[in-house]
Amino acid sequence: MTSLTLPPTGLLFENIDKRFGGLFALRRVSLEISPGECVVLAGRNGSGKTTLLRVAARIVRPTAGKLSFPGASAEASGNGRPGYVAHSTMVYDELSAEENLVLFAKLQDVPQPAARAEELLREVGLYDRRASLVRTFSRGMRQRIAIARALVHRPSVLLFDEPATGLDPLGISWLAKALGEINRAGCTVVMSLHGESEISALATRAVQLDAGSVVADTKSGASLHSILTFGGA
Amino acid sequence: MAKRIILGAVAVLLVIAAAYGSFYIAPEERTMGVVQRIFYFHVGSAWAGMDAFFLCFIGNLLYVWRRDQKYDWLSVASAEVGLALMTVVLITGPIWAKPAWGIYWTWDARLTSTFVLWLLYVSYLLLRSLVEEPDRRALLSALFGIFAFLDVPLVYFSIRWWRTQHPAPVIMGGPGSGLDPTMSKVFFFSVLAMHVLMAFLIVERYSLEKMKSEVDILQREAEAQ
Amino acid sequence: MSLLSNTATLLGKELRTEFRSRELLTTTVVFILVVLILFSFAISPTTEESREFGPGLLWLAILFAASLMLQPCFLREQTNDTLSSLRLAVSDPFAIFLAKLIANTLFLLVTEILMLPLFAVFYNIPILPQLHYLLLVLFLGSLGISIAGTALSAISAQARMRELLLPLLLLPLLTPILVVSATVSVSLLDREPVVLWKGIGFLAVFDLIFLTALWLFGEYLLEE
């Protein structure tokens, strides 16, 4: 989908702790993700998946530990930061699809913001609605504008929190295809998921979290199926 | 624990001694009579209150820098004690003003600034009560506390300047009113007494906050099971 | 310079959003108008009294209106969590604050300028002779209100009872602005106008102090 001109980038979590008022959401999480992997984070609600992704996105500051992106290029647009998609679209309802993308392109010093916005809108199939306010979009379309926003600066790491939420089977198929293309183009993908689906089938690796700690990893031999059904631990 | 009890005992003794001093040792003031004696506690509380707020400011800065909970405990403790002391100032002011001027409140510069300061720290405590998550509460109130303290000199100078445009009676003597040597001694002793009282109250409130925080953590852990 | 370009981009967004709906501007204008009218019903000033009380009442109305107008500032970034995407996108988080406080100052100034003729008419105060100084005071005062208001709005957006909390945090903090702006304005609109430069200088100092504080501590206001 998006042609990458950036060096492949991985993620390195070293002993990450995140405490919210005395309770640990993440407890000594150490994880090394190699460039180009497609990793699924699985686990019950409250196991720390969203927090780990938000720490990776640098929206949440860890209480302890270190996060780094081996291979990241400092000269890249958007300071080599990962792309992040969550349940909220993180775009402005009162602006049009095009205006939103141009805004985020300009903020991240993406060259030729208008052209980049057009390119993305075509790729996610929203070009016809480029002048419509995001407020008028359906759930599936909101998902797509959110993805477009995350990809504006051509990140080499994409973080996705529960991508399939609220999508119908068609939407899930489209998303699986899109994520597959993104990963094949060299972007490292880390996403949190529940259960098995077309999307989980893309995974090259799965990690299970429970109560803020890593309890199973396909890299260490656990089975993908058992992790996705929370039986890995 | 023993140290805290000793501090408390010393504080109480000093305050009683200061009270004795202001009523029996200090000479009666020429123009204002007995009511003027309230000055020793009024000003002593004001200075101690300001120092408590300064301590709160230091706690705020240290929390933002270090993120150690104990600085948050220090901040809330000193803010509450400072507020209590300032309440004493705001009550003793009118008590003096009524017999001296016939009215309770004259919008004099220092008292008015104290009132705004009082409102600011009430807001500080109000903010704290409206944020549930402890780390968030500590950070947000620390940041507001910093802004509030930076405002303090601005409030004071703006009201003093405003007062030069609209002069009014000054409560407790303007700058340059001299103090008889005995009065001076009683005065500084009162200031000392109020400061020791302030320190004792802050230590107690700090320990209380520490315990509350520990109980809160235990509660959250229990709920999480 | 990334900070300046980010600020300009975000400022464009703030202005575009507002001019599309104009909801902040219209509600603020109407609010100040209503407050000024209610004041004159409550006090029924004579012409002389108007001159003395009018400017103070105008500033009071501006302060109340501002404490309402500033509430959506960071609340609207919570609807779709756009605060997170902004934080991810900008190189310096101060750009977010700078853009918002410039926008808020502009909104306040626009409403004040719209209100001035009505104020002059209702309170029988000629404003034209000292208009340039009046505008200077309005600018410096509104800037101070915006700087403090934008910062505090980021704080109150994260607490409960945020609609009530912002005025409670903001109004005591802005006492110096009210006191000084009102005094300078009264003096400007007096029968024998005097420009109180000390007051004007004070407003500039207030603005500088809080802008610096916001610059130093802004990123912590947005932290999670």
Overall pLDDT confidence of chain A: 88
The gross shape of chain A turns out to be globular
Which structural category fits the helices and strands of chain B? mainly alpha
Q: What percentage of the residues of chain A does DSSP assign to strands (E)?
A: 15-25%
Number of strands of chain B: 0
Question: What is the rounded distance between the termini of chain A?
Answer: 36 Å
What is Rg of chain B?
Answer: 20 Å
Characterization of the model:
The complex is a heterotrimer of chains A (233), B (225) and C (224). Chain A is α/β, with parallel strands linked by helices and 233 residues long. Chain A is 27% helix and 24% strand. A six-stranded mixed β-sheet of chain A has the order 5-6-7-3-8-9, sandwiched between helices. In chain A, helix 5 links the parallel strand 6 and strand 7. In chain A, helix 2 packs across helix 3. Chain A is globular, with a radius of gyration of 17 Å. The model of chain A has no long low-confidence stretch (mean pLDDT 88). By secondary structure, chain B is an all-alpha fold. Chain B is 81% helix and 0% strand. Chain B has six helices and no strands. Chain B is globular and about 70 Å long. The two termini of chain B are 34 Å apart. Chain C is mainly α. Chain C is built from ten helices and no strands. Chain C starts with a helix and ends with a helix. In chain C, 81% of the residues lie in helices and 0% in strands. In chain C, helix 2 packs antiparallel against helix 3 and helix 3 runs antiparallel to helix 9. The chains are: A alpha/beta (233), B mainly alpha (225), C mainly alpha (224). Chains in contact: A-B, A-C, B-C. The interface between B and C is medium-sized, with 28 and 32 residues.
Task: Summarize the helices and strands and which ones pair or pack.
The complex is a heterotrimer of chains A (233), B (225) and C (224).
Chain A: E1 11-20, E2 23-33, E3 38-42, H1 49-56, E4 64-68, E5 83-85, H2 97-107, H3 113-123, H4 139-151, E6 157-161, H5 169-184, E7 188-193, E8 205-210, E9 213-217, H6 224-228
Parallel strand pairs in A: 3-7, 3-8, 5-6, 6-7
Antiparallel strand pairs in A: 1-2, 1-4, 8-9
Chain B: H1 2-25, H2 39-66, H3 69-101, H4 109-129, H5 134-165, H6 181-224
Helix pairs in contact in B: 1-6, 2-3, 2-5, 2-6, 3-4, 3-6, 4-5
Chain C: H1 2-21, H2 23-43, H3 47-69, H4 72-75, H5 82-89, H6 94-122, H7 131-156, H8 162-173, H9 175-188, H10 197-221
